[in-house]
Prior knowledge:
By secondary structure, the protein is α+β, with helices and mostly antiparallel strands. The chain contains 13 helices and 13 strands. Strand 3 and strand 4 form a beta hairpin. It starts with 8 loop residues before the first strand and ends with a helix.
Amino acid sequence: MNIKKSMPREIVTPRPKLALTIPEGMSRNEFFNSPANLQNLAQENGLFRTPEDLLMYRKIIGHSSEFDTSVMLDTSRRILDPLGRPVRRDQMNRQQKKVWSQMTQILIRDMLDNYPDPQRHLILCGEASLDSTWPLDKPGVPSIRMIHNHFMVFPMDQLAAAKPADPDNPNLTDSGHNTLFLRHLARVYMEFLEVLDLQYMELLPAEDSALSLTGYPQGLPSWWVKKGAEVLKDRYFWYEYEQILLGFLDFYRTFFQLVSTGEEAIPHEAHFRSQVDNVLLGNSTFIKVARDLREKVIIDPAFANDIRWRPAYKQILYRDEKGRLIVTISQNSVGNAITELLGIVVRRVEDPEAYAKIEPALVNRLLRAREKLIAAGLGEPISTPCWPHDKFVPSCREKAAA
Length: 402
């Protein structure tokens, strides 16, 4: 692979024409979060479902043409209120989290086995949440409001050949929130996260965790998985993965509670209370930045409207060009795509002909990965018009059109 200058990239991914009709008077996001659409998603694009309602499905408006699937905690049949559905991993019960980790490990292993060369393929597992108190129709709100885990593979040659992305794209900068954390809070954030005392992961210098192709992630705390893919089988690794999330939640809640109320108090749901008290509330810079932000919120309505008051995050595990597995986590301030954390902007275009050329191979790779979930006894496969059994059926699109 010929590495070009380090810069964010924009790739174009084709998608088919969507057959769904949005009722008059409904926005796209309102419709996509309806139980009727979520039922259709499983019937038309579902691959696998567990008794815990973890649903693996094909991303019809996807990121990658190579390998692209998601696992979602689909509570739409139990919880009809879209704002009442789980959007973060800490809102799952113990059994759901256990199976979630098992499915994650199996799908990552499948990607590593089938794409063994880190110089040829970027492998990404990214978990994203959205604050459930945001209005459904707010710009940047994902199309389905439940916690997702994304599994994607990008050919490095495709990324190297892609045109540069606009570095000022708000989805790459998190509308300035990422800059706020990096410029003013990076040092206290790193000090706070030292409480985690991780055994399987080691904190990396920010410049050492960035992909050489894109230069991202930029300055976020990142951890190297010291023993590689083998530790993904160990439950303790996933315990540590969970601790990173809990540490992030404590930091986020403490900061934005201070912005909201002006009071220096430990959030009642904090996991690391002593560390919050000593490292965060005892840090003058942390207090000053929060109070400066509070003043800006008071006088600037547009800025205030972009604040996400409840924790929303993107936590990813990716393989870099050196073959290392790296974990990082970021606040999710504008609903940006998981790929943009790594400097990859995906522009989806409706192009049925182009999609028809890639669809059979893409779907068959997902069905291959599904076989490993079936073999693990985690749930049951889903049949759809395009894969009634274990292979893609090319004529399914014509049947749907008829």
